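User: structure tokens for this one?
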Amino acid sequence: MSHLIRLAQESEAAALHSLLQKAYEPLLEHGIHFTITRASVEDVRDVIRNETTYVLEKDGELTATLTTRFLWTPAKNHLAPWPFVHWFAVAEHAKGQGFGSEIIRYVEETFLRDTLKSPAVYLATAIKHPWLTDLYQRRGYEPFHTATNPLGVELVYLRKVLIQQAFDAQEQAPLVRSIAELRTLV
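Assistant:
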């Protein structure tokens, strides 16, 4: 009964797609539609290729997953200057065993905070999701924005500060500069 957290491989796209589809299927009953509910295996393969997808493997089976998207990810809208985590899922048979918390903690702390030195991380979830917003708030996330996705789902965006000093320094610095401002720097 051993498990490990590692990067997903493109060859696992079909298995990861299956895990995600099964995990997100109950949300459809609540009228909650995320992009993964319409994603193909090729879409999942593309995300593995262009983003950072971690999986928790238990006894050789994909049991949990979480993906991180960065500002340089092609053709994606970015609301904030920090990494965006999404496609969080735990296999039905493994729920309640701590695997979800473990993979989230690993991505937040080991990967984003300790390795990449990211000041913060953010995510989005459906406002009417019955328990996810509360779960994320218990993990230290705070709401900072709301929007509606292209599928009509009202979202709340939440952020978590990972390195307070870096976050405070970033909050003081302008994050976007005009072309004119950049020209004065060269």
